[in-house]
Specification:
about 300 residues, alpha/beta, Rossmann fold, 12 helices
C-alpha cells in the first residue's frame, strides 16, 4: 500500500525528487504526531503537504483497522450482502477515506459477488480532502480491479443539527455506514451527534449495517457508550458488536518502503513508523419488521 500511496502522490504533485519531497514532509509528520497526542485536536488539512504526511504516516494503519473490523463482522456482513452485486457505502468523518480501500480489499478477499461499489464521503472538510480522495480511488483500483468504483465527497458537519435531512435518499439506499476516527470532534456536542445518528438509523434500509470505530481514548469510549445506550432503546436495531467487548490491538503487517524509512519515517523522535494501534468499535444492524400473525384467523 505504501508504494501505491507514494506513486499516487508523485503523480498528483508531479514530484521529480522523491527523496527530497519526503524529507520536506518531516515537520508535517512531527506536527501531526504532536497534535494527535491531544484527543481533542483539530488539524488544518488545507495544505496538501499535511495530507501527504497523513497519507504516508497514518492512512495505511487506519485502513487496516477498517479491514480488521470487517473481518470480525464477516458473518453478519456476508448474510446482509451475499446476494448483492452493487454495494453502496457511506464513510462519515473519513477524510481521505481509507475505509474505501479496506472495503474493496475485503470484498475481493471474501469472494463477494459485488462488482460495483459506490461510496459517499461525508466530512466537514470534504472539499479540502478531494485530492487525497483521488489517491483513494487509485488505491482501490490497485486493491480490487474487479469492481467498478466511484467516490463522491460531500461537506457535512455532524456537530450541527439536522445535517442528514438533505441526504435522506442516499441514506435510504446505503448498505454500509462507517464512522471511524472522528468521535473526538463530537465530545463537546454529544446530544447533537446522537440526534444526527438517530436520524441516520431511522432512515437506514433493512439489513444495512452501521460501524463506529475509534481509538481507545477515554473520552471517545464514553461517547461510544452513550451512543450504544441510545441504540438499545431503538426498535429494529440489533447490536452485533458492543463497545463493551473491549478494545483490540492491531499490529500492522504492511511492509514499509526503504525510501520512506531513509527519508521520512526514520525512527527519530516523532518520526517512528506507527506499527500498532489500540481501537474499539460498535456495530449495529437494522432488522426487518417483525411479522405478527393473528392466530385466531388461521383456519385449523
Amino acid at each position: 500500500m505504501y508504494r501505491s500511496i507514494l506513486r499516487a502522490i508523485e503523480q498528483q504533485e508531479q514530484i521529480q525528487d522523491v527523496e527530497h519531497y519526503l524529507q520536506s514532509l518531516k515537520p508535517y509528520v512531527i506536527n501531526l504526531r504532536r497534535g494527535f497526542r491531544n484527543s481533542l485536536i483539530r488539524v488544518d488539512y488545507s495544505d496538501f503537504k499535511v495530507q501527504a504526511a497523513y497519507l504516508l504516516a497514518y492512512y495505511p494503519l487506519y485502513s487496516e483497522v477498517t479491514y480488521r473490523v470487517l473481518m470480525d463482522l464477516a458473518e453478519p456482513i456476508h448474510q446482509a450482502f451475499a446476494q448483492k452485486k452493487r454495494l453502496q457505502a457511506c464513510f462519515l468523518g473519513g477524510g481521505p477515506t481509507p475505509e474505501a480501500v479496506a472495503l474493496s480489499t475485503y470484498l475481493k478477499q471474501s469472494g463477494s459477488q459485488v462488482n460495483s461499489l459506490t461510496a459517499y464521503a461525508f466530512d466537514i472538510a470534504a472539499t479540502t480532502w478531494s485530492k487525497s480522495q483521488e489517491v483513494s480511488k487509485y488505491l482501490v483500483s490497485k486493491a480490487n480491479s474487479e469492481i467498478q468504483f466511484s467516490l463522491q465527497g460531500h461537506p457535512l458537519n455532524l456537530c450541527q443539527k439536522n445535517v442528514f435531512s438533505t441526504y435522506r435518499d442516499i441514506i435510504q439506499t446505503t448498505d454500509l455506514f462507517v464512522i471511524q476516527n472522528c468521535l473526538n470532534e463530537f465530545v463537546n456536542t454529544p446530544q447533537v451527534f446522537i440526534e444526527n445518528i438517530d436520524f441516520l438509523i431511522q432512515e437506514m434500509s433493512e439489513s444495512s449495517i452501521l460501524i463506529i470505530a475509534d481509538l481507545n481514548f477515554e473520552i471517545v469510549k464514553r461517547l461510544m457508550g452513550q451512543v450504544e445506550c441510545h441504540f438499545r432503546t431503538v426498535s429494529r436495531l440489533e447490536v452485533i458488536r458492543s463497545n463493551a467487548s473491549g478494545y483490540s490491538c492491531l499490529h500492522s503487517r504492511l511492509p514499509l518502503l526503504k525510501v520512506l524509512t531513509d527519508n521520512l519515517l526514520t525512527g527519530e523522535e516523532d518520526l517512528i513508523p506507527k506499527k500498532k494501534v489500540n481501537f474499539n468499535y460498535l456495530a449495529i444492524q437494522k432488522m426487518p419488521i417483525a411479522v405478527q400473525f393473528e392466530y385466531a384467523s388461521i383456519p385449523f
